[in-house]
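the two lines:
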Amino acid sequence: MRLLEKRASMNARIDTVLTKFRSRVNSFPPGMCPLALYRSILQMSINQSCGKCVPCRDGLREADRLLGRILSGDAGENATAELRELCETIAATADCAVGVVAATTVLDSLTEFADEYESHIRDRRCVEPATQTVPCMTLCPAHVDVPAYIALVREGDYAGAIQVIRDRNPLPTACAMVCEHPCERKCRRSIIDDPINIRGLKKYAVDRVPADQVSAPKANVPTGKRIAVVGGGPSGLTAAWFLALMGHGVDLYEEHEKLGGMLRYGIPEYRLPKARLDEDIAAILKAGDIQVRCSFRVGRDASFEELRRTHDAVYLALGAQLGNRMPMEDADAPGVTTAAEFLQTVSREGMDLTGKKVVLIGGGNVAMDAARTAVRLGAETVHVFTRKRDDYTALDSEIRSAMQEGVRFRTLLSFLNIETDRESREVRAVWLQPEIVGTYDDQGFVTTEHSSAYPYRFQCDLLIMAVGQRSDTAHFAEAGLPTVRGRIGADESCRVPEWDGVFSGGDCVTGPSTAIRAIAAGQVAAFNIDEYLGYHHKIGCPASAPEARPSNFVRTGRAEIEERNPFERCRDFGHVECPMTEEEAAREAGRCLRCDFYGCGALEGGRF
Amino acid sequence: MISLTIDGKTVSVSEGTTVLEAAKTAGIDVPSLCYLKDVNALGSCRLCVVEAEGCDRPLPACRTRAAEGMRVETETPALAEYRRKMLRLILSNHRADCLGCPRNGACRLQSLCIRYGITESGMEGTRLDVEEKLPLLEDHPYLRYDPGKCLHCFRCVSACHRRAGNGALKNARSGVFHIVDAPFGPNWRETGCEACGNCAAACPTGALTLKTSRAYREWELTRVRTTCPHCATGCQLDLLVKDGKVVGAEAADGPSNGGRLCVKGRSGSFDFIHSPDRLTKPLIKNRETGEFREAEWEEAIAYAARRFMEIREKYGPEALAGFACSRSTNEDIYMVQKMVRTCFGSNNTDNCARVCHSATVAGLARTLGSGAMTNTIRDITREPDCILLVGSNPEEAHPVVGMQLREAVRRGARLIVVDPRNIGLAKSADIHLKLRPGTNVAFANGMMHVILEEGLEDKAFIRDCTEGFEALRELVRDYTPEKVGEICHIDPDMLREAARMYAKAEKAPIIYCLGVTEHSTGTEGVMSLSNLALLTGKLGKPGCGVNPLRGQNNVQGACDMGAQPGDLPGYQKVENEAVREKFEKAWGVKLNPKNGITATEVFPAAIRGEIRGLYICGEDPVVSDADTAHIIRALESLDFLVVQDLFLTRSAAYADVVLPAVSYAEKDGTFTNTERRVQRVRKAVALPGDMRPDTDILTDLMNAMGYPQKKLSSAEIMEEIASLTPSYAGISHARLDAGESLQWPCTGKDHPGTPIMHAGGPVRGRALLYPARFNPAAELPDEEYPFILSTGRILYQYNAAAMTSRAPGLQEIAGEGFIEMNWRDAERLAVKNGERVQVSSRRGTVTATARVGRKVSEGETWMPFHFPDSPVNRLTNAALDEFARIPEYKVCAVRVEKLP
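prediction for all of em together
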């Protein structure tokens, strides 16, 4: 009898195993040996071998044996050479991708982790530091004690939760609204079901208790030192907060009329209501001796040298607020703008796009902000064009929301040129070239090339280029400060090498990035400035993690934050996110596995 | 043609050729373990990887097609390094106990390791531990699988699937390990394995071996190329000779077998040669005591010659008859009929084709002008869109044809099986017409009725190449599918579909066998099939024709050689004066102008006292002919009987003189297979004893009877045959030994032979459409004998089993007689599967083990005729066909009873 594949066949049943397998992969904890992980890939490859060809069937096992020897400390001097030679042979001779890619993957490891191999062979151990850490805390750039504040939310102590957050990050409200939540990426809960909605719980806490009503830790007695912080964005505000709590005097210089940086002028109101941002800022300014000088531009109102002279240390947190324009004819024509410029203008003075056709080039989060803003300004159509799918670097949820609000997405179109009106020079259309996808480049991005289809004209009244932002570092460069491609050349500790007392961090060092990374930099800078000044000031946290409850391993769904009806929300700038309910927040917090207490979190005295 | 450069040499090959094969034509041996031409080109061992210009990866030569302008390097330092690494990996997972391995010296892995300088793996291996724990599979009588030596090259699995077309060897898995699921464990009987051993032949190492191969090592062997002595497929094989003994057989790449062999060819073609019960001295019977005594040749020959001449003197030449054997060589058979015609003075010579395919010879000669298979085995298994298989079970009776038919079906040819039983091929048939035994003529007439009714006939062919169309049209008008359905017990719609399918196919051969011929209306059955092919113009074309699968190895040759009462060699008619004159001139005697009588007529004639003396060369009619009791009565009635054989057969027991002859492995000669291909038989061994080649015995007998027959070698006899037989005129041992493969008609020294007959129009001129009316079988079931019994062959035995019963393995696989019954009948008789039952007909009674199932229809039974414990010919009916005098083996009425 002939049978089509049965539903309960082994393959269908294996699919459920693969789901479990993916969960394991997705939650792979930080601090583990990369070679052990490579060995898992190798063993997975062995499991995938059909057994037909010698290199894959027998060769991969031999490679596994060699790698196993390296990992178990039994390998000799030429172990990597042997492994490389074997894998090169397998890669060259295997019949299908199962074998070829298994071998090239091992070859990749030899390049990517040469140091790890060497350490294993020479010292029989991993490269330091090599201890497993709590995933959410590790992956939060600011290392916020996530399990602690989730536990506090669960216990209903929202102020305590905010205090725990502010121990590392003084902008809990802003982050509750806009953070990209890298903390959720490897949440151990995803072994069981799905990651904890960490940002959602933070939002629940600040929704319940406004941040400016939560008392800050008691600031230190004044140290008599004064620190200049240039830039009142998330990084500068964070540095100011910690420095002030340490007892240092802070002069905070802001070019714009209000504090907040991109949080205020870049992120649209519907994502982060400015009234809510003000709660964080108000709390920060209450921390200690912080003197704010808005509408103050260093280089205009005072020089960098002056600031250095008058302060014990300087922290440059300039941000990256200048939008890039593509270098092409008419890139400065009326009706052509950058996303940063557009968002700043809208946040300052508003805009009416009624009946206008808006075109966006670029697929990042800023592009989504601009697109969704344009929708709210009454644009007739909003089109986002990108060259390839990889260009959509925005969060999936942002893209999805934009689509719901009527933004139209087209990909595989490269932007050729701008057509303007001969008289007014105003933009009339863009010309687009259809593309086809090609191979991947060395960085792992897919490339495209022009397809044989003809370019076409696309009518537009407003062209927004969302193709990156840069910092305004000209004045500092002139003063001799090291810059790299327009960014300030500071190291990971925020020091600018060979410039005593000068620190820098955030977007002006890393290029445009997320708020939480800027916040992390502010934190690092503040503590390193304190160190630089010869102190080891501590800041106490008024709240602490409650006792861990027994873990709950019952598979339970993740409570998502819902957005308002897209047909309604696209007509106003009101906050799009719906609040979580108390029972949702309690259940969600109850899913937390308290990795700070269970598993590796208890090692070395506990806490991260 | 495609031109490419390999290692600097320019090679020209046809499109589709692989790089590996292209390299071979340039004399470059690209190493490989897993590659097996036409069977296994998977790229598994990766030893055949080569470098091609412009390609950044090495390519497996075995599965990369040559392309125009390609530049290939097969031996670079990098490739050698890859190969060494592959060999080391393979070796690390191979238990290299070469000293105890039967394949030592013949092992591919061994020779490649030597070629690339690998003496040890240097790797630990990962599979060996697991494989050592897997069971050694060696319960099978002939085959053995040792997982510890397996390279997992898949050659055996592919050979089973693609060479044997079977698929009993499968892939399996244990965790991450591939397993060869070899059917040689304790459950080997239930696996569908046909024991053909094509897998063992494909194994590059000692993992999958024939158990017999333990008896020899490669370097001890001499190989002698010869032709298989079983069925008429004519497989080419090499006998493996060690110390003067045949120890095995290997397939050769012959035109009809293409490197395949069946279980009988590989494992059943040599044990009997060295059987201890071989006759080694002539025997003479004391008529008083009935005891045999050993005698010297001079005495035996003189005695036999004297007695025959006395009978001729007393009763005349017509009282003597001599049977040739369709198992012996053309040269032997020629000499038998020459002896009968020159010394006995009668034309009473025949051979056992009489009881298998005489209906074919008679029928096709009458309709087409030549009574032989029209096309070649390769042609009817490679070319067709549709195959009409009637009354033939090639998987068992012509296994190597069966393998190729399975392949054809796998490649997508449609298959119509017309057979009363659910034979193996019925499973993969598009249509199985499970007709009632004895209704072939009605079936064929029904097919023709539909073809004419629906206008599917080939009008031009009928007009230009046939005669008798109107009469045929008139006759088949009555055979509506509904009427035929009732006669044959088949669904009229299925008949209609079969007719359309066959008629509309561009290339469709009719393949048939004894299910058509062995009837009292056998010749009409054959002619009806011939009608069907003619009506649709499927004659003289590739992939078409009327193709009888002849029974025994040389049954075609036996008829060709004139061992027939009405035909001199090459079907030259005895009644034709000019023909007789030619032979009289050549043989130097006056020939009897009167046709002789057939073998089946000789026995009643003997009972009547008309035949007094009989010479039987190698046949065993007591076992193989219908109605044993009547055969025995006939033999007992004879005044004098000489039997020439290898063994003291049941027929020989009735002889006055028994002459010990030699087997096919001990003599030279030729066999003509079913596709008219004349192939060499070569002497491989000489055994101790007084046995002599048949031709020498016959020469002595002829001289003793007063005919001056010069002693000739086998090759010289073939020269004499060629000189007198137009269709063999171009055939000689020298040409065959030089590598030519010749199919008659081969009319001259430069004639290449004739693969497809009637290509230039029917040999007869206009082919005859013979209107045959359906007549029921001679003996139909009634209340007393309610079942139809058909008889036939099984895969593991051959005919009277003189050869196969001396192969212990074959006996172990299938050594017992049985009767197939329908489960409903069995239920009614309260007979259980495996129970012994008594089967009786009007002529006798036997017992057999019941095999109960759905293979035969209700009211029908089937028995093989090989087994002495169930001698089924005691039951069969010697009702003879009008034209060919063939007995009705396929239908007689029997009663089945539970044994008390």
